[in-house]
Structure formats: C-alpha cells, structure tokens
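Throughout this review, each integer encodes one residue's backbone shape. One record appears below.

===
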Amino acid sequence: MSKQVTADGPSGHPAGETVPEGSIDFRTHPDRYRHWRLRIEPPLAFLTLEVDEQAGLRPGYQLKQNSYDLGVDFELYDATQRLRFEHPEVHAVVLRSARERIFCAGANIGMLGSSSHQLKVNFCKFTNETRLAIEDACQHSGQRYLCAVRGTAAGGGYELALACDRILLADDGSSAVSLPEVPLLGVLPGTGGLTRLLDKRRVRRDRADLFCTLEEGVKGRRAVDWNLVDELLPRSSFDDGAKERALQLAASSDRPAAAEGADWPDVDPKLEGDSIVYSTLRIEFDRALGAAHLTVLGPTGPPPGDASEALAGSAGFWPLVLARELDDALLHLRLNETRIGQLVIESEGDLGTAAAFDAFLHRKRKHWFLHEVLLYWKRVLKRLDLTARSVFTLITPGSCFAGLLLELALASDRAYMFEGESEDGAPAPSIEVGELNFGAFPTPNGLSRLETRFLREEDAIDSLRALIGTPLEAEDAEGAGLVTEVLDDLDWEDEVRIALEERASFSPDALTALEANLRFPGPETLESKIFGRLSAWQNWIFQRPNAVGEEGALRLYGTGRRPRFDSERI
C-alpha cells in the first residue's frame, strides 16, 4: 500500500503561529514541502528531491539543478524526524531525484555568494547535523538509507549520498559523483565530504586527492573500484534495482512492522515582550549583556505506567515535547540571534519527578518509541554541544537537574550551584545522577559527558555510579566534581553577575574557538573531525578573499571570469 505524504502548499508556519519578524523560518510539515516528496510504501519510504527553483529561503537566487539552501534541508530534516517517530513500519528509505539528468548539484552557489558569513557557516553546520542524523538512523534506529544516484551528484549532492548506507549509481555513461568545491569555488566540501571519503568510505588518500580536484568527477566502473559508490545499475532497470536493494536493507531491520506510529508534537512558541514561551521551557533575553536565559520546566506529573501508555500520549509526552521544543529553541538562537553570546540554563520543577522520568526511560529503553526519544535527546544535546556561544548552568532552589536534565549542566562550560536555603526559605537545591548519564547520550567524541568530564578516570566514574538515585546538595555535588563552583546566598547574585559580565567583555571569536577546543577532549571520531576540524577550516576559508573577495572563486562562479588567487600559503 503506497501513501503519498506531500501536498502543494505555502511554506512557513501554519496560520496562527507566532513568528518573530525577520526570523528564518525552519518549522515545516509534509503538507507544505516545496522541494521533497515523501511516499510511504512499507517497509520502504521514498524521499524524492525535486527542488522548486523559485522557492529559495531568501530572495536573490534560483535553486537551479536541484541545488539546495537551508530551506531544502529544513524539509529533509523534518522528513527524517517524522520517519523515525511517525513511521515505525518504515525500515529503509530511498533517496532519489525526480530529475532525469541531475540528482543534486549541491549547495546553491548564488545563495552562498550572497549570504552573510554567519549564514554560510550555520548552513554548513545544520546540513552536517542533518547528514549525521541520517547516519544515526542507519546505525541505531534500524531505518537504513539508500541513495539512488541517476545523473550528477556534485558537491553537497554527493555528500548527501555519502551519509547513506549504500550508494547506487546509474551505469549510463553520464551519471557521476564529484566534489568540485576546491577547483570551482575555492572552498572545501563543507558538509563532511572529505571526512566521509576517508573515514567512512575508506577511499585511498591519493585517490581522494585526485577525486577532489576533478571538476567532472568520476563515473562508471571507476567509481565502484575507488569505493566512491557501492554498485552500478543499468538505467533501464535502475528504479526496480534500487527498490530491490532497499528491500534487502529493510530485511535486516529490527523495527516493528505493525506498530502504531507516534504523534510528532507541534511546536508553537509565543512571543511575550522580549521572551519566547514554549510549553516546557521559556527564553528571556538580556540584550545589554548578550545573554539568553533558558529555563527548562520539569514534568508536572509522574511518568506513564508503561511504554504503550507513553506512545499513546506521545504528543504530550514530556521528554519528547521538551526535546522537540529545546531543539527548536537552539535552532532559533543559532539562526536568528547571532548577537546573543551567552546561554544561561536554569530549571524549575520537582527533582524526584524528573528523576522518575529518567528511571522510566532507562527501564523501557528497548521499546522502539522510547528508544527513539532517547536518540532524539542525544541529537539535541549534541546541538547544544556545538553551539557557538558560552553556556552556563545555574542550579538554584527549585531546580530539577536529574538524569537527562543533568546532561544540560554537564554540557555547559561552567555550572554554578547555590548552597543552602534561599533567603525566602526555599529548600537547598539538589542534583541527581541517573542511569542515563552513563552512556545514553554520547557527545561527538563518542564518550558520555561524564566520561568526557573525567577523562580516563575510571575510579571517578565508578564512584558516581554508586550515587545513582541519591540527591546531592551543593557540597556533595562539588565533591563529586559535578559543578564548577558553589556559592552561598551572600555571594550568589554578585558572583554570577560578574561571571556573565566578564564573559560578555571577551572577544566572541576567541571564545568560540576556546569553547570548541575544550568541549571534546579524548578520542576523535568522524563527527568530531567534521565539527572540530573541517568546520573550523571552512569558517576561515569563507572569510578569505580567494573565496569571497571581489575576484574570489565563489563570487565569480558562473560569470565566465576566472578568479585571481593570492598564492601565499598560510
């Protein structure tokens, strides 16, 4: 039974939602997709790219040749999320193009040439996160991805293919894959192409070097021999062959075949003055200080009795709704609040109830829905890890940093904890370690935040395991190494103010580099290489005249004029 999930309609928010004026609008729904078509044919889903050339995120460029901008990727991200939660019956996804001679030309050059530096960098970051989410679905959700390339897959188009489990290429004499950014644009394959070529596809370094300087790319048997793709299929039977290979991938899935899907929660934040209010959190801006105060609201009732009850109430299931709204908030801050340099995280709620949800998620983690909720939390927390702003957590009376909420404090650059009762008699705050803190939410370096915090200190991790379920007040939390500094009622307000004011006085460029270098000690992974190494280089290159100057390659692409490069090596 085939089900078409798309329909033509306007992009943007549904009527009635509040959108800050001038903001980038990243919320969407299959009914409003302009660039992707999603069809469900259990156990398969087909995601077909057919970019609307006139529907760019911003005016001033056309999305020719199935090229993409952030708007195209917002739809892809939405589709991948919905496939994981709403469609447990989908065990494999086929990515393909509706165009006969072009799969995807990659990032739109007109968009890159006309965008601000911040937007270019955030474009690459979000696109990378979306590709990594596809790989996460392949590795951990039993939802495998296959890319069927008929025509040209260039730059980011090939990088999209690289995120999939398998890549099929039409054997027709013209279909090809390429990473032409260096010779054509003076930049790098900025969404992980270089890293995936070597670390994931195991392409030989010398072949990768040659491949990345060939404007025309590689096709046919050579693409298979170099491991750039997995298999060639004749054009005459390409679609049938791709479906057959996808069914083979689907057969290996452990996702339930007949389970009811979850309801994907709507997100409808409200503007109240200089605040944004969600159902599970609120953001208050201190623009003079360049800070956003984000307060997480803990659960208002106990967890469900079992996993089926959680699934039945998925649209209001607190951990899922909070993850969805926190994801939305972090994206809004990243894309629309680039002058906000500090994120101050607090929480309100009952510690015991928050801990009960943590224990429930751990106990029922093998149920497909709760498994997906935990994987989603992992991805949202990684988005926090990658934020280009300072992150402080304040643990005050009435806080509920237990288990998965404690991860927010562990992800922070610093955590300050209030000691003792407050002046109005509120009880001293406590934090609580839960089972989920010991591996459910790895950072980009592959380690839990506790393992990252206590690098190679196994005794410290063992000591913390013994504290699971035990509320820790300030002195014990400091002794366990879980907070940066403990402050009493007399010092709290002044010390926190001084810390935030001092941070605001530093260079944001230096701070971004400092934070990115300190957040991921220990082993390197494909993911940490992409964000710690590739992103840093691309950030630098996007500011250099060889790429974006008046005679730079990115500026002159398509004009018929050759770029003039400064030959000095730095």
